[in-house]
Amino acid sequence: MAHPTQLGFQDAASPVMEELLHFHDHALMIVFLISTLVLYIIIAMVSTKLTNKYILDSQEIEIVWTILPAVILVLIALPSLRILYLMDEINDPHLTIKAMGHQWYWSYEYTDYEDLGFDSYMIPTQDLVPGQFRLLETDHRMVVPMESPIRVLVSAEDVLHSWAVPSLGVKMDAVPGRLNQTAFITSRPGVFYGQCSEICGANHSFMPIVVEAVPLEHFESWSSLMLEDA
């Protein structure tokens, strides 16, 4: 999860997020190079009184500064399109979970099980135990098996919400009357935090998302226990 004074992204916990981080670094290097070149040209033009006639009128330079930006845009567009297709790919998910947004909590239904579902409310500050995070902990976590393709169907009961977990590279709008879907694979066990990312009313800041990735054996034990309690 994020920590104070952090400037970059959270550590990636899914293959898609790793690709997004690599693309971010790739695009940032291009921006740095362009910014350095433009800054150098500005300083050179301001600080010298000499004029180069080949810069004022040169077909070669005009060809270069027309073709070079097009090449740079292609270098940015190709990996971007690749990641867009990767994010939209959902192949044979091992588990499907329906996430419903409400004012102001989330409810989860494990559709592969007959009667496995629960509401997930934020734990009030006064009820937190040492080690828990304020405004991020929930009374019920969305538990998933690690290294398995998970499909999440996202919708809302009342107003617009958005189901987002940054470290998994997942963000999907929850629209009343519409069923959107996204997918992710957790590459390691852990607890990953997110929040509603769409302004949804007075308590918008108080409907966190907690995804806990565990080994498959632990997930089976958890699901059996939840079904017994139900």
From TrEMBL:
Entry membrane topology: Multi-pass membrane protein
Keyword Plastid found: no
Functional summary from the UniProt entry: Component of the cytochrome c oxidase, the last enzyme in the mitochondrial electron transport chain which drives oxidative phosphorylation. The respiratory chain contains 3 multisubunit complexes succinate dehydrogenase (complex II, CII), ubiquinol-cytochrome c oxidoreductase (cytochrome b-c1 complex, complex III, CIII) and cytochrome c oxidase (complex IV, CIV), that cooperate to transfer electrons derived from NADH and succinate to molecular oxygen, creating an electrochemical gradient over the inner membrane that drives transmembrane transport and the ATP synthase.
Keyword tags: Copper, Electron transport, Magnesium, Membrane, Metal-binding, Mitochondrion, Mitochondrion inner membrane, Respiratory chain, Translocase, Transmembrane, Transmembrane helix, Transport
GO biological process per UniProt: ATP synthesis coupled electron transport
Primary gene name: COX2
Cofactor note: Binds a copper A center.
Protein name in UniProt: Cytochrome c oxidase subunit 2
GO cellular component, one term: mitochondrial inner membrane
Taxonomic placement: Eukaryota, Metazoa, Chordata, Craniata, Vertebrata
Protein's organism: Candidia pingtungensis
Domain Cytochrome oxidase subunit II copper A binding: 92-225
Membrane-crossing segments per the record: 27-51, 63-85
